[in-house]
Specification:
With 337 residues, the chain is α/β, with parallel strands linked by helices. It folds into two domains: 166 residues, Rossmann fold; 157 residues, L-2-Hydroxyisocaproate Dehydrogenase, Chain A, domain 2, CATH 3.90.110.10. It is 46% helix and 17% strand. The chain has eleven helices and eleven strands. The strands form three sheets. Strands 3-2-1-4-5-6 form a six-stranded parallel sheet, sandwiched between helices. Helix 2 crosses helix 10, helix 6 packs across helix 11 and helix 7 packs antiparallel against helix 8. It is globular, with a radius of gyration of 20 Å. The termini are far apart. The structure holds nicotinamide-adenine-dinucleotide. It comes from Scleropages formosus (Asian bonytongue).
């Protein structure tokens, strides 16, 4: 009888634990935007999400009403303006932030700093007050600065946990997988290229030597491929000719990252994603490397692995810019009133 009871407790205890994040409350901040809308659609379509709160400074009641008619169980609510931000965030396990302005042709991601820095700081401040333990997934650019900004704001509130703050760089991995697959005639879904460093120009460092399956390129092709991955965002900005930057592929990448995180929080083992996080792997305070995700966010930083000479140079060349962008973000919060 005792054994039976213990078994019952173990089974039902297990079910309760496993189902916690199958009932995850996820917030999208900037949900009415070019990324926010398709990202919210993908999240609404997932069995991992039971509550989806959509926050923006405009249009969220309409986006929420629209999504709420989809026959999946996630309850969708729309929240508009700062007065409704707290309600969107209360009880959230995961917050995804694509709020802010995107690039126009000729702009770098850093040109967005002046507008997006304060947006990310304000939104993180609200997260610190309303859901201090939530996983924060930051999409807003420049990611190399917005992740340090979010981290410093959380520190000010005394609620910073570096294992729970992620800069979403998944689109760089998605692009690298696609371009390698194109060149080698492979199924892109079976290609995995780790991309490390940061998320802007030369700080985006694809590790083609660590690609699975193993691939090899002559040096001129490798150089061109690396350049294309680094400038793929600009390829989209130019093609959209003033109508913004990547939104649909970014929504896919943001959803992929969020689902990996929820799977890992849910107890799935062996979930690995690259992300721009607080790091001890290089001399940069923040750096993207493959991360083993777990119930509490980052379980283990898997580090850079073995680099080719070509990749070692890319890492060395990125350090100056990356450190500058990180410091710019930290200084912004330091000087905030
Ligand atoms: N990490 C990446 O790989 C990646 C890729 C593409 C784009 N981005 C970045 O994502 C961000 C959003 O891009 P987009 O194309 O969706 O832009 P968008 O202009 O279409 O949408 C942005 C949304 O943010 C909202 N917003 C503005 N200020 C806000 C605030 N204070 N609170 C809440 N919402 C606010 C706007 O109302 C708008 O709906 C940009 O910074 C862009 O550079 C990142």
């Amino acid at each position: 009888m005792v054994i039976f009871s213990v078994l019952l407790i173990a089974v039902f205890g297990g079910i309760t634990r496993v189902s916690t994040y199958n009932n995850a409350k996820v917030a999208v901040l900037g949900a009415a935007g070019g990324i926010g809308q398709p990202l919210s659609l993908l999240l609404k379509n997932s069995p991992l999400v039971s509550q989806l709160t959509l926050y923006d400074i405009a249009h969220t009641p309409g986006v929420a009403a629209d999504l709420s008619h989809i026959e999946t169980r996630a309850q969708v609510t729309g929240h508009i303006g700062p007065d409704q931000l707290g309600a969107a965030l209360k009880g959230c396990e995961v917050v995804v932030i694509p709020a802010g302005v995107p690039r126009k042709p000729g702009m770098t991601r850093d040109d967005l700093f002046n507008t997006n820095a304060s947006i990310v700081a304000t939104l993180t401040d609200a997260c610190a007050r309303n859901c201090p333990e939530a996983m924060l997934c930051i999409i807003s650019n420049p990611v190399n600065s917005t992740v340090p900004i979010a981290s410093e704001v959380l520190k000010k509130h005394g609620v910073y946990n570096p294992n729970r703050v992620f800069g979403v760089t998944t689109l760089d991995i998605v692009r690298a997988n696609t371009f390698v697959a194109e060149l080698k005639g492979l199924d892109p879904a079976r290609v995995n290229v780790p991309v490390v460093g940061g998320h802007a120009g030369k700080t985006i460092i694809p590790l083609i030597s660590q690609c699975t399956p193993k691939v090899e390129f002559p040096v001129d092709t490798l150089t061109a491929l690396t350049g294309r991955i680094q400038e793929a965002g600009t390829e989209v900005v130019k093609a959209k000719a003033g109508a913004g930057s990547a939104t649909l592929s970014m929504a896919y990448a943001g959803a992929r990252f969020t689902f990996s995180l929820l799977d890992a929080m849910n107890g799935k083992e062996g979930v690995v994603e690259c992300s721009f996080v607080r790091s001890e792997e290089t001399e940069c305070k923040y750096f993207s490397t493959p991360l083993l995700l777990g119930k509490h966010g980052i379980e283990k930083n898997l580090g850079l692995g073995k680099l080719s000479a070509f990749e070692e140079k890319l890492v060395a060349d990125a350090m100056g810019e990356l450190k500058g962008s990180i410091k710019k973000g930290e200084d912004f919060v330091l000087n905030m009133k």
